[in-house]
Amino acid sequence: MTGDADDRGDLVTTHAPDASLGKPLAVRLFLGLFVTLAIAGASAFLLQLFVLELVRVSGDSMWPGVGPDALLLSYRHGTPERGDLVLLQTPEGKDQVRRVVALPGDRLRIADSTPVLNGKPAAREEQRRVTLLGRPARIFAETIGDRRYEVLDIDGRRAHDMPPNRPPAGVSKGTAPPPSLRVVTANGASGGTEYLIEGGVYVLADHRDDASDSRFYGVVPKDRLRGVIVRVIATGRAP
Q1: Is pLDDT of 226 > 80?
Q2: Residue 100 · residue 201 · CB < 8 Å
Q3: Which residues contact 81 (CB under 8 A, 6 or more apart)?
Q4: Taking CA atoms, which of 7, 77, 127, 137 is between 20 and 30 Å from 62?
């Protein structure tokens, strides 16, 4: 850029020719698109690396709300609440999506697959009957706190309740097992044993009769919580 005075003493600014103007329009458009896509791709990579994670579900343990091939968005720094879906790592190192039903300090027992939280059973309403893999089943709307979601019970199959002080099904080498559950009330008047949740969150599958969850591997400590599901992008398909 150069500046020269004209006859009136004003400064006139001139610019050197833009080299890109000599390039074909198609080349300039391609370069602009390439830069835009590169920036978008880098931003998406960094976002997924540090903040968000896309999760694809392969099994039916969270059906009917989330089925096989469902696509979810997980927030790595979220704090789970009762009723939230979370992405976790099992003691064996496998990734799972499960639902939080109890937080540290809660008292919990499970009766016929229904959580009883701090003495209050989760509200349940039957929605419809279905056939799953040739077996009759019922879908219920279950509510914990302000979260409402659907769960599945297979007719004639007894769901697993909370096993007393059962250790995790397996612990990765070098990883301390989650603490055993402390009994608050053993076989109380309301039936069943009530436990105090300590050291992590207690999770259940929505398909209560045929899935692994905290009933088998214990509470999930913070270092095995990979994120809170903040959006269901696609619900997947029925099993």
Answers
A1: yes
A2: yes
A3: 100, 103, 145, 147
A4: 77
